[in-house]
Structure formats: structure tokens, C-alpha cells
Specification:
The protein has 320 residues and is α/β, with parallel strands linked by helices. Helices cover 38% and strands 25% of the residues. It folds into 2 domains: 3-206, Aldolase class I (TIM Barrel, Alpha-Beta Barrel), CATH 3.20.20; 211-319, 2,3-Dihydroxybiphenyl 1,2-Dioxygenase, domain 1 (Roll), CATH 3.10.180.10. Helix 2 (25-35) packs parallel to helix 10 and helix 3 (49-59) runs parallel beside helix 4 (73-82). Belongs to the KHG/KDPG aldolase family.
Amino acid sequence: MVEVLEKISKMGIVPVIALDDAKDAAPLAKALCEGGLPCAEVTFRTAAAEESIRIMSTEYPEMLVGAGTVLTTEQVDRAVAAGAKFIVSPGLNPKIVRYCVEKGIPITPGCTNPSDIEQAIECGLEVVKFFPAEAAGGLNMIKSMAAPYTNMKFMPTGGISAKNLNSYLDFGKIIACGGSWMVKKEMVAAGDFEGITALTKEAVSTMLGLEVAHVGINAAEASEADSLATAMEKMFGFAKKTGNSSVFAGTGMEIMKTPGKGSKGHIAISTNYMERAIFHLEMRGCKFDMESAKRDEKGNIKAIYLEGEYGGFALHLVQK
């Protein structure tokens, strides 16, 4: 998968926007960046699209800006000249796809049936847009089409919202979801960019699902850990479960048999999507101890510590 699409995959959500006035481009870009989604698919449905892409790309170079609803090769050239890093089209036009492929421009054309998928494969694509997602059969349709095309991945757009976002992202063949629920046109028109920032933060929070999984306490040695877990079980009914390196009391308390990371212990934070959580937390300034990463048989990170201590506790990110 090309670098731009790999970044989109880690981002998880692509805000799809249509601007009627280029003056809104900069404040909207600022709102998306502050909300945690420095990314936008600016649709070529309006006359302000090209200039909006130019403004966003210039004033917010950290943003990954693309052009959507691209219907001609001339629009491809205009969008790329303005700063677009990827192209999205509502359907699969072989002429446009081949034009982008030949020029090394990432493109995700809209596909809704197996014939579209096979044309995309013929053009050398690994990712396609599924549009309009909900109207075209939603997640069940994507799963049905993904079965025979094992190497194809999808970016559904159309009808995606905070309510069904994670059900789509839970399917491994989906790299990200496009949506406009956090950038509603009426909010842009009203200049409610603070509201857009709030909705964007909410979208990222819903996707990542970060929450405290358990608290780890450092005991001096195994008998102390067992004694504490036994006390928790006796007092509160937290079932004791003994492991190799720790003893759990229920699911919320882990007592280490020997002192582990953190002078006092650790706090485990669980997430829906490990790679996306790492990406978004790094954007927030967090640093990870990559040597602490534990991986599954496929090489996916299942647990990892952040660098440093917080109130004497190490922070431990774990996959739900």
C-alpha cells in the first residue's frame, strides 16, 4: 500500500468536505487539525474546491489534503497543482485511474460491484472507495465482495456516522472511513468551527475507544502480591487469578509479583485499534518505548508502554 494510503489507514477517518467559499478553508483546516484529524477530502463539486485545497495545503502543511469527486484528468491536474496528495472519484473511470497510476498519484475510485473491483485490480490498485456505502449494501456488501478479492482493501464513504463508524473499522479489509458528520455544511456556513473541532475530537475518541483497562501495583515479591489479591477477593469479591508474573484481582487490578515498570506500578489503557491509537497519541506528543512492544503471531502490536512516568505510574497501551 502506498505511503499516503498507509497514513490514511492510521488516521482512520477522512473528513469529506464541500466548500462554497474558499475563505472557510483555513479556519476549517485549523478546526480539523485541533480536533485530531489533519486530513481532508475536498470535493470538486464546488468552484471553491481548487483554491480551498491550495489554502489548506499551504497554510497547514501537516495536513493530508486530497481531492474528491474528481471526474476528469483536467481536474486531476488542477487538484495536484493546488497541493492535493490523493485523488478520490465516485466511480471507476479507467481513463482517470490509469492517468493517475501513470503519474504516481494515489487514487481510490468508487466501486460497488465485483466488475468494478476487477477493473481496479487490472489497473494495479490495492484500495478502492466503496460509495455510496450504506445505500450500496453497507458492511455486509463489502464483506461479500472482499471474500473473493483477498488483497483488495476498502474505504467506505456515504452514510457513515459516529453510530456505525466502528462497525466498519472492525473489519480488517477497511483502511478508513470517509464521512462528513463532523464537518456539516451548516456549521461551516455559520462559522461554527469550534463546534467542528468538538465533533472531530468526538469522532476520534469514538474510533479509538481509549479507556482504563486495569491498574497495576508493584509488590515487593510474589507472596505479597498473592496476599493483596486474596484480600481484594475476600473484601470485594474480586476473583483472584494467578499468572506467571502477576496476580489479578478481578479485571481492574493487577498486582505484580516483582516490581515492574513505573515506581508505583502501571496503568493499562485499552483501545479499539492499536496502530491507530499509537499514531494519534504520537500526534499529541506521546512517545512510545518500542522495545516494550508485545506482538501477536502476525506481528501486530498487542501491548506497548509509553515512555516516562505519570504520577509514579507507567502507562501501558493494550489492544481490546
